[in-house]
Amino acid sequence: MIVHIGGYTAHSGGRGTGIVAARRDPGTGQLTALGTVAVTESPSFLTRHPTHPVLYAVNELPDGRISAWRVGTDGDLASVGSWPTGGAEPCHLAVASDGGHLFVANYGGGSVTVFPLDAEGVPGERTDVVEHQGHGADPQRQEHAHAHMVSPGTGASPLLAVDLGTDSIYRYDLDAASGRLVPRAPRVRTAPGVGPRHLTRHPDGRRCYVSGELDASVLAYELTDGVLHQLGRVDASERGGHVQPSEISIGPDGRFLYVANRGVGTVTVFAIGADLPEFVAEVETGGEWPRHFAFVGGHLYVADERADMVRTFRVDPATGVPEAIGEPLTLGSPTCVLP
Known about the structure:
53% strand
């Protein structure tokens, strides 16, 4: 199996070289670097087309862009082009479930961009850029809108755009014919100063969870007929210190919720029940700044941006708790792991 890893390059003060490919041993989980397969500026987040061998990356720069490549069987990448997003510092992107459109969150621009994808998964010129308005309670981090994640729905479920700067989750429907986003009002507001960063949807289509970067929280929601109802809040970490939750995701079997905590270098495991997530364990990652993680088989791969490594964990199928195994893969400023 091939894993692609994105990160920050010197263009953003990082030490990465572009997109790196690594071979995964399915038995041991060990990653072996194959080298840089795409030299591109600060590909801080990656995603794939659901049916075509196409990989997409944001280029997190003041003049934001996305780039796309065809993926070879050995993990090589062949460029198919690069397109401006119309917003600064894009930090996340996702493909619609039907493969027809690509959505981008522009952190610096506080906006969401839409690109149509052709029959081969190649982006066309952007069809919409929706700018969020407002600010939050933190004058340093919430001086204006900061779109941080886009989560396309399936069927009648809306696109959810998580905005750290305005303490909001925006809901949109896509007009597929025009490629434009139609807002569903009102937007969902968190408590002031939460700084919502990332969101994960439960496989049941009914529950979702949000990491609060600024107040070190996990928010639980129920999604009913496109409406988000907050169920409550739990702490993302039981450690002291300045905790900044980053990635949040549900394990493959839907029983456990995982949150990476920058500042204290941990991943917290919660059991998913009918109401709020219940704390199970908090595991040290061996670094300080776990920015992203991904599940592959029975393994969890954690990218620590500041420790310059991707570390492998074996996940106990009964308890959901990860345990570090082997030696980490060393590479500069990794920020995203894409199986």
